[in-house]
Task: inverse folding
């Protein structure tokens, strides 16, 4: 554990010197936090029909029972914006993890590290946690600030919708599982390529399913419910187990030490 913590400390000291990493960890959560709150502020006191969103958001669905038209628009809008907090657990660790291996390769600092007695599991655990912990903390903190903002700007009925177990499980359970998925994918990719930018671009492919889910939700093609969230959590958990194994196999110390130039 001591060696793993040493790797984590080393990773944080190095990767956070990168401006792209800093932007992803600090400013991306702020942007995702500001978007819904600014939209809510602009919609304050405006009814759904007067802004032309009544039909688009479907005011008669189950989530709108007992709500006014304006509150229903807010609920459906918040459902879409809350999905943004499912992108953060993927986008943040992808940037950190992809850079952590290829970046060290380009700086010629990975080979001396591999020559030490540290095991592959300890090394990958350190690099993985160094990427996963900031992503998880940033997601949870920004989501809690999001809840506080919604609480101050909407009615209790609208706020209580965000406290539905659907979203709590999505953010606090599925979110970390997605983080592991992103980290494993980034490690696999960065173990096989030699350019940090290529590693980040290829690893970012894991964001596409969440973006498609966001688009589907906004267009009314997909309606998230607890069954879908639980099923998604199980699928991602299984994928995490498989990718953890693949990541360990993909990271070949001997090849890195002998063939990387």
Result:
């Amino acid at each position: 554990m001591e060696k793993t913590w040493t790797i984590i400390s080393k990773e944080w000291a190095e990767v956070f010197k990168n401006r792209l990493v800093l932007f992803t960890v600090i400013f991306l959560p702020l942007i995702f936090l500001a978007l819904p709150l600014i939209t809510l502020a602009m919609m304050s006191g405006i009814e759904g029909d007067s802004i032309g969103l009544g039909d688009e958001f479907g005011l008669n669905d189950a989530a709108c029972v007992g709500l006014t038209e304006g509150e229903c628009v807010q609920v459906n809008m918040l459902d879409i914006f809350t999905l943004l907090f499912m992108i953060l657990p993927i986008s943040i660790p992808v940037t950190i993890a992809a850079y952590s291996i290829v970046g060290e390769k380009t700086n010629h600092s990975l080979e001396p590290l591999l020559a030490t007695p540290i095991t592959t599991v300890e090394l990958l655990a350190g690099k993985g946690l160094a990427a996963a912990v900031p992503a998880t903390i940033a997601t949870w903190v920004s989501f809690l600030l999001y809840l506080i903002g919604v609480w101050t700007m909407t009615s209790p009925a609208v706020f209580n919708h965000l406290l539905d177990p659907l979203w709590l499980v999505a953010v606090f359970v599925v979110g970390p599982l997605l983080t592991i998925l992103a980290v494993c994918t980034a490690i696999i990719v960065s173990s096989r390529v030699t350019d940090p930018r290529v590693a980040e671009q290829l690893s970012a492919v894991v964001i596409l399913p969440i973006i498609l889910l966001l688009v589907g939700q906004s267009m009314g093609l997909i309606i998230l419910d607890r069954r879908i969230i639980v099923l998604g959590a199980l699928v991602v958990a299984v994928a995490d187990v498989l990718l953890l194994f693949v990541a360990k196999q993909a990271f070949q110390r001997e090849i890195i030490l002998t063939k990387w130039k």
Residues 120-153 form the longest helix (34 residues).
